[in-house]
Structure formats: structure tokens, C-alpha cells
Design brief:
Number of strands: 24
Strand content: 15-25%
Structural class: alpha/beta
Largest sheet: 7 strands, mixed
Radius of gyration: 26 Å
Number of domains: 3
Strand order of the largest sheet: 16-24-21-17-20-19-18
Helix content: 25-40%
Length: 620
């Protein structure tokens, strides 16, 4: 999505009239339903003045296209400035400029493509501007069909207009050379150099045609982690880590390396909501640390992701190798201290106190920290969906302190699911009354969300969207019994709503997310959490209703075969207030998780008609 689009003439005129920042502010509100923070508005005022000076050259065509704030599809990332036109051979070209107001940076030699600078009122590690500009262009090229098929050339660079470069400046240190070669960096006093860079690729104007092609290019099917796993294990780079993903990845590599060398315990906590790339970073770490000679394992409580990964890797790795790389969270009971180098715990919010059928051990978090020199916990506290889930930041810190471990915390905020829409996730939290947000409707939110009036319509939509890539599934709250004796009977339908009938996922398969025919079955929280699809259809059962102007939960509507609330009745007798709070949190979190599994779209049917009508009202 392009926020501002015009020609060089339009841009220069807007700057001369002092109206352009106001235009951009209005367009962001109109297209994204978002108010612009004051600091962002000031940054436009400052940076665009410098771009005005750069473009104030008669040899840069007046009808070259100008775009400001281009939202990269499938992400929440925005490119600052694009200038488009034609090259000497009349091919479409675009110069992509990352604008920074930094005036000072510190070198970070121990991390790849990381610098340290003052942002957000503090000194923080961030990606090098050349890496940022290059990775954004790589992302556009990966997913935009017009860029690929029409051979549109993208030329990234970074412009730090407040940064005065010295000879042998740290911003151009040799450790950053490979990225600067891909995306040159310009500082204060480099207007003529930046002009020359632009003029070498933009020989004549295109009246914004190239920008139109980029903005309207069909988005190629997004990569899923499960489909890219084999290539990643072989050492191929399937995902270019962007911004905070790269910072977290590099920092964890550094801490893991230190722990292997000095054998001191380090615990790294990474917070992140749905679609922020927790699992992508986790798998990248597994591959890199293993490549670096570490004894490293990927750990999860939920077996669904591990089963899918194992199925994908069959034929590439031996069963023994797969089992050694991907482990359940209950396998670290009574292990010697520091027996592994690094343990990477995905979905750490799902960790239990006791392990296994016979509730062995003391605490899974304690056992994981004990068994590793460096332990990494990826966590989203709003995805606690089982009464036995104990994973929390405070709980991890408690056991880390007991082990005298050094504690690190970081957060992933970049959104790569739900079409890159932070707004959709905030809206879901708002409508489910998990937390109050400013996103009171879906206006300006680029995500395909619909509420349908009957489950058969939901099924038809999902079956249609599943045809291209087998990447759409129907999911439901656990409000229907999953009869043990009939779990492999394809003719038995567990879920019946009027004339709609479907089975829960079959009990003889542990790879529901990728099975060829599982679009004809309904998945639950246990088969979907930790995985993603292009489209999901979610059936909200009677455990979530809209009554007297409020979204309310009713744990009594949950199926008896659902273990996620096992013991709630006993807790209700002992401590009704706590029991109600726990059940309420689990039910809301369950639907939050299901409603955020779709990368491109989510369709919903509500058994409670009032809830369906409420969701429709809240969309507008």
C-alpha cells in the first residue's frame, strides 16, 4: 500500500507550499485509520526537507514517480521514500531510500549488521541502515509478482542526513561492508553523491508507472515456516530477518556463544505476539547454532509443530537426527546440569509444572534452565490456553535467578501474519475484551475478515481457498466431544450445527496442518497453535457469547474430552473467583490464537447469534 504517491513535480510543489507533511498525515488516517504521533510528523518535516534538496536537480526527471511511506505487503514495515523512473534501457527502476535522523552510532562488531544508537529515548541495538534498506527490497522482490515478472530493478540505499561521516567512520566499518555494497550509505554533506546515485538509475521519468506496478503487483503466496524448513536445515536463507528479528537473533547468537565458552548460565526471554516471527527466529537459531558446533535443541510443549517439522524433514535427516533436534518440553527431567549448550523453547507460555503422564519432575522451566548453558524462551503470555500452562516471564525469571543465570529480555513487534496488520491483532484483543485498544473497528485495516451466517458457507470458503496450496483450514473452539472410539472413523461427524456436520481431525494423524485431506476435518487449539495457514475459518462455540452488552465466557459449554480445563470444577469448589478468572482467560486466549492463525484472511461463524452480530457491528 502506497500512502503518498505523485511525481517529482508534485513533491517539490508540496514541499514549497509547506503542505506535504499534512497531506501524508491525512492520507495515513484515511488509508490506515491511524493517527500520526508527533515525533513521526516531525521526522517527515526534517527528512523531506533534505530530500527536497536532493531532488532539486534538473537532471532528475520532473515526471519521475515519488512515493512516501510504502507499506510492504504481508508486513507492518514501511519504506520511507521511493523514486521511480526508467533506466538507460527503458527498464522500470526504483531507488528505495531509508531515511534516518541519527547523528551518532556505536560499532557492534560481535553481531552481524547491528549498530547501537539512540532511539526511543535510549541507547539500543538496531539493524544497520544498509541492511534495513536491502532487506526491505529483498522482501518486496520475494513477494511482488510484478517486480519479478516485469524485472523491475530495485536499488536500495540509506540517507542519514544528520550524520557527519569521518574518515574510516564506524558506519562504514568493514564488518558492514557486504551490506553497504548492496545498499550504499549517504550522510550529512552527501547530497551530491546521493543525487549521482539516483541519476545513475533514473534516466527518464515514468509518471509513477513503476510505483503503480509495485503497488498493484499480485502478492505471491507467502512462505510458511513448515514449507521452508527443509531448505533452512540445508543452510539456505529462506527468510530475511527484518529489524527487531535480526537484532534478537544476533544477540542470542552472541549470548549462546559466550555461554559455550565460559559455561556461565544465561537465560534469554523473547516476548512477541502472534505472527511476530518467534518460530522463524527460533528455527534460524537452531540451524545457525548447530552449524556453529553447538549441541542445540528446539523445544516445545505442543507436539503439533514438532510433528509437522519431522514430517517435512523425513528423507532429509534420519529419524534419530530429527528426534535429537526437536524435543518435547518434558524430556529434561533429572538431566545433569549443562548437558546441552543451548535450548530454544518455542511457545514457552505452554510449559507445564510437571512432565509426562506420571507428572514427573519439579518444574519444566527449572529443568530446561538446569540442562542448558544458555536457554532461550519465546513467549506470548496471551496464548496461555491450558489450565496446566505455567509459562510466564515472571516464572522464567524466578527459576533463572535461582540458577544464578544472567537474564536478558527482548521483544519482537514486527507483524508478519494477518497481512502484516498490527491493527487487526489489536482489534481482536479489543473485541474479545482481552485488553482495550484504540482499534475499535476494521476501517483501513488490510486484512480479509468476514463473519458468515452459517457454517456451511464457512466450509465452502475454506475449501475454495485451500485449492491452490493446501494452506487453509477450519478451526473451532473445543465445544464438541471427540469420541475416542470413533477418532479414526471418517464417516463419524463430531461437530453438528443444524445441517452442518464435520469431524474433528483424525486421531491417526499428527500432521493435520499439512495433510492433503485435512481441510475436510476441523482442527482445534492443540493442532493449530504454533502453526500458520493462509486462510482460516473459525467456528466459535457456545463457550463465548455476547450477553447484555458484554462478551462473556461459559466454561460449562466446553466438551468433557477437552483436557485444557481439566480440574476446573474442583477449583470452582475451592476458589470460585480464581476458577472463573482462569477459565475466562483460557477461553478468550484460545479464540485469540485461532483467530490469528491466518496470514491472509479469517472467516468466522458464531454459534451465538448475538456474538456474530456484535462482531459485524465492530467491523464497521
Amino acid at each position: 500500500m502506497l500512502i503518498y504517491q505523485g511525481t517529482k513535480t508534485d513533491f517539490m510543489s508540496g514541499m514549497e507550499r509547506d503542505t506535504l507533511p499534512n497531506e501524508i498525515e491525512s492520507l495515513i488516517y484515511e488509508k490506515m485509520n491511524r493517527k500520526t504521533p508527533n515525533r513521526e510528523y516531525i521526522s517527515w518535516e526534517n527528512s523531506l526537507q533534505y530530500m527536497y534538496k536532493v531532488l532539486n536537480d534538473k537532471d532528475i526527471p520532473s515526471n519521475a514517480g515519488v512515493a512516501i511511506e510504502y507499506n510492504i505487503p504481508l508486513t507492518a514495515k514501511r519504506v520511507d521514500f521511493i523514486l521511480s523512473g526508467l533506466n538507460t534501457d527503458n527498464s522500470e527502476s526504483a531507488v528505495v531510500i531509508e531515511l534516518k535522523q541519527w547523528s551518532k552510532i556505536n560499532l557492534v562488531e560481535s553481531n552481524d549488521a547491528i549498530v547501537e544508537t539512540y532511539v526511543g529515548k535510549g541507547l539500543r541495538k538496531v539493524v544497520h541502515p544498509s541492511y534495513q534498506a536491502w532487506s526491505y527490497c529483498a522482501m518486496i522482490s520475494d513477494y511482488n509478482e510484478n517486480v519479478q515478472e516485469k524485472n523491475i530493478k530495485l536499488f536500495p540505499c540509506a540517507y542519514l542526513h544528520n550524520y557527519s561521516k569521518d574518515e574510516n567512520d564506524v558506519i562504514e566499518h568493514p564488518v558492514y561492508k557486504k551490506y553497504i555494497e548492496k545498499a550504499p550509505i549517504f550522510g550529512h554533506g552527501d547530497i551530491l553523491k546521493l543525487r549521482s546515485f539516483i541519476k545513475s538509475f533514473i534516466k527518464s521519468g515514468d509518471n509513477g508507472k513503476t510505483l503503480y506496478l509495485i503497488d498493484n503487483g499480485r502478492i505471491r503466496p507467502s512462505k510458511s515456516l513448515q514449507d521452508s524448513l527443509v531448505s533452512m536445515i540445508k543452510g539456505n536463507q529462506e527468510f530475511n530477518l527484518l529489524d527487531d528479528q535480526k537484532v534478537v537473533y544476533e544477540d542470542i547468537l552472541e549470548q549462546a556463544k559466550k555461554s559455550k565458552l565460559d559455561e556461565k548460565k544465561r537465560v534469554y526471554i523473547v516476548k512477541g505476539g502472534p505472527g511476530t516471527g518467534k518460530s522463524v527466529v527460533a528455527i534460524n537459531l537452531l540451524v545457525k547454532l548447530t552449524e556453529n558446533g553447538q549441541f542445540c535443541q528446539y523445544v516445545s510443549k505442543n507436539s503439533a509443530p514438532r510433528n509437522v517439522y519431522a514430517a517435512k524433514l523425513t528423507g532429509t535427516l534420519t529419524k534419530t537426527n530429527i528426534n535429537n533436534m526437536f524435543r518435547g518440553s518434558g524430556t529434561y527431567v533429572d538431566l545433569p546440569i549443562n548437558v546441552t549448550d543451548t535450548l530454544i523453547v518455542d511457545e514457552a507460555h505452554r510449559l507445564n509444572e510437571k512432565s509426562g503422564l506420571f507428572a514427573k519432575g519439579e518444574n519444566q522451566i527449572k529443568e530446561i534452565i538446569n540442562a542448558s548453558k544458555c536457554s532461550v524462551f519465546f513467549i506470548d503470555e496471551h496464548q496461555r490456553v491450558h489450565i496446566d500452562d505455567i509459562g510466564s516471564v515472571d516464572e522464567i525469571k524466578k527459576w533463572a535467578e535461582e540458577a544464578n543465570a544472567e537474564i536478558f529480555e527482548n521483544e519482537l513487534s514486527s507483524q508478519f501474519r494477518c497481512n502484516g496488520s498490527d491493527g487487526y491483532l489489536a482489534w481482536i484483543d479489543n473485541v474479545l475484551e482481552i485488553r482495550e485498544t484504540a482499534n475499535i473497528n476494521l476501517e483501513g485495516i488490510d486484512y480479509d475478515f468476514k463473519v458468515v451466517n452459517n457454517p456451511n458457507a464457512l466450509k465452502e470458503l475454506i475449501i475454495e481457498y485451500n485449492k491452490p496450496k493446501n494452506r487453509a483450514r477450519i478451526l473451532a473452539g473445543y465445544c464438541w466431544e471427540w469420541e475416542k472410539a470413533k477418532r479414526n472413523d471418517t464417516t463419524h461427524h463430531d461437530i453438528k450445527i443444524g445441517d452442518f456436520e464435520m469431524s474433528w481431525n483424525l486421531g491417526n494423524s499428527s500432521t493435520y496442518a499439512i495433510d492433503e485431506n485435512s481441510v475436510d476435518e476441523v482442527g482445534c487449539i492443540h493442532t493449530a497453535q504454533g502453526l500458520e495457514f493462509d486462510y482460516v475459518g473459525v467456528i466459535i462455540g457456545k463457550d463465548l457469547k455476547y450477553v447484555n452488552g458484554e462478551v462473556v465466557t461459559d466454561y460449562t459449554e466446553r466438551a468433557k474430552t477437552d483436557r485444557s480445563l481439566f480440574g476446573i470444577k474442583k477449583l470452582m469448589e475451592e476458589n470460585p473467583e480464581k476458577a472463573q478468572k482462569v477459565a475466562d482467560e483460557i477461553i478468550r486466549n484460545t479464540y485469540r490464537t485461532l483467530l490469528t492463525r491466518g496470514m491472509k484472511g479469517c472467516y468466522v461463524y458464531c454459534e451465538d447469534e448475538n456474538l456474530g452480530n456484535y462482531l459485524k457491528r465492530m467491523m464497521k
